UniProtKB/TrEMBL annotation, chain A:
GO terms for biological process: cell division; regulation of division septum assembly. GO terms for molecular function: identical protein binding. The keyword Cell division applies. This is Cell division topological specificity factor. HAMAP family: MinE (MF_00262). The keyword Transmembrane does not apply. Belongs to the MinE family. InterPro entries: MinE, MinE_sf. Prevents the cell division inhibition by proteins MinC and MinD at internal division sites while permitting inhibition at polar sites. This ensures cell division at the proper site by restricting the formation of a division septum at the midpoint of the long axis of the cell. Keywords: Cell cycle, Cell division. It comes from the Bacteria.
UniProtKB/TrEMBL annotation, chain B:
The gene is minD. Residues 3-155 form the AAA domain. It holds the Pfam family AAA_31. One of its GO terms (molecular function) is ATP binding. It comes from the Bacteria. This is Septum site-determining protein MinD. PANTHER family: SEPTUM SITE-DETERMINING PROTEIN MIND HOMOLOG, CHLOROPLASTIC, SEPTUM SITE-DETERMINING PROTEIN MIND HOMOLOG, CHLOROPLASTIC-RELATED. Interacts with MinC and FtsZ. Belongs to the ParA family. MinD subfamily. Keywords: ATP-binding, Cell cycle, Cell division, Nucleotide-binding, Septation.
């Protein structure tokens, strides 16, 4: 910090940027972690089944499990190509 | 029954071996019979930090494979007589550490030791998983820096899902945060994550804060666990951490910088 910055009270706040970035990425990764192990394989098999009928790319099937207190919901999103 | 404590972090270079050496020395100094095991098969380092590198004859893998007895492989520390070191092998494949082999050694050590400290290798591969598998408690060594904090969070996830306690549905591994290489003056300038920031993100209890200190390098140069540098801030911070690990209440120290006077700020640029 230079002489003038001292009086202006100007401060480098990279730590708050770090904190914000970490909070986002850590929350995201914790969400992923709670997903069941079989999910990638389930997604792959679903892709294969759908491909028997419609040509879709890998990223067009999204599978997620949402856990509530009493039950879990398997959420399946399939985007079909435009006609 | 011994208490099994893993010192882990995910990221390399954050101070796992330094911490393992100091925590185990601190426990032993208080009269607890303690063994510290180097799990970093292939890259043995704990022996250097503990100043016993020239006394290694047999190692952890020799014991697992039945080529040596535990008594032949254990090295008794020359400074603290209740402290023993079980060195890692330098030459073997990491897969030489099998779950059954590690369990056999830990069970045998459990009969005579009060504390078993497991110094984990970096990463989340086989060696790191073996080091944490049998743990009752985990010291997660973290630097106030983005990649270290993120990796610590991943290790916490692994402790909660892949440890023996998790697999057996027992009480979860008791987690402790040890923040190392902490620089209070950079924190005050807003250039470094604060203790509170890291605690908030990782959400585990704080065991201690080790200030960044030149003493740490000086000590490792000589093969002296930092905790034996009793007059240094880092040594005292480790001493406090050991006391807290044993259930004592100690106020956290070394978390604020020594305030500089007005003139030294003017001339040294704050």
């Amino acid at each position: 910090m230079s002489f003038l910055d001292y009086f202006k009270g100007k401060k480098n706040k990279s730590a708050s940027v770090a904190k914000e970035r970490l909070q986002i990425i850590v929350a995201h990764e914790r969400g992923q972690r709670e997903q069941p192990d079989y999910l990638p394989q389930l997604q792959q098999e679903l892709l294969e089944v759908i491909r028997k009928y419609v040509q879709i790319s890998d990223d067009m099937v999204q599978v997620e499990v949402d856990r509530n207190e009493s039950c879990s919901v398997l959420e399946l999103n399939v985007t079909l190509p435009e006609r | 029954m011994a208490r099994i404590i893993v010192v882990t972090s995910g990221k390399g270079g954050v101070g796992k071996t330094t911490t393992s050496a100091s925590i185990s020395t601190g426990l032993a100094k208080r009269g607890h019979k303690t063994v510290v095991i180097d799990f970093d098969v292939g890259l043995r380092n704990l022996d250097l930090i503990m100043n016993c590198e020239r006394r290694v004859v047999y190692d952890f893998v020799n014991v697992i494979q039945g080529e040596a007895s535990l008594n032949q492989a254990l090295i008794r520390d020359k400074r603290v007589d209740t402290l023993y070191i079980l060195p890692a092998s330098q030459t073997r494949e990491k897969e030489a550490l099998t779950k059954d082999g590690v369990e056999k050694v830990i069970n045998e050590l459990s009969e005579t030791f009060d504390y078993i400290v497991c110094d984990s290798p970096a990463g989340i591969e086989h060696g790191a998983l073996m080091a944490l598998y049998y743990a009752d408690e985990a010291i997660v060594v973290t630097n106030p820096e983005v990649s270290s904090v993120r990796d610590s969070d991943r290790i916490l996830g692994i402790l909660q899902s892949k440890s023996r306690r998790a697999e057996m549905g027992q009480d979860q591994v008791k987690e402790h945060l040890l923040l190392t290489r902490y620089n209070p003056s950079r924190v005050e300038k807003g250039e470094m994550l604060s203790v509170a920031d890291v605690e908030e993100i990782l959400a585990i209890p704080l065991l201690g804060v080790i200030p960044e200190s030149q003493i740490v390098l000086n000590a490792s140069n000589q093969g002296l666990p930092v905790i034996l540098e009793e007059d240094s801030d880092a040594g005292q911070a480790y001493e406090d951490a050991v006391a807290r690990l044993l259930g004592e209440e100690r106020e956290h120290r070394f978390m604020t910088s020594q305030k500089k006077g007005f003139f030294s700020r003017m001339f040294k640029g704050g």
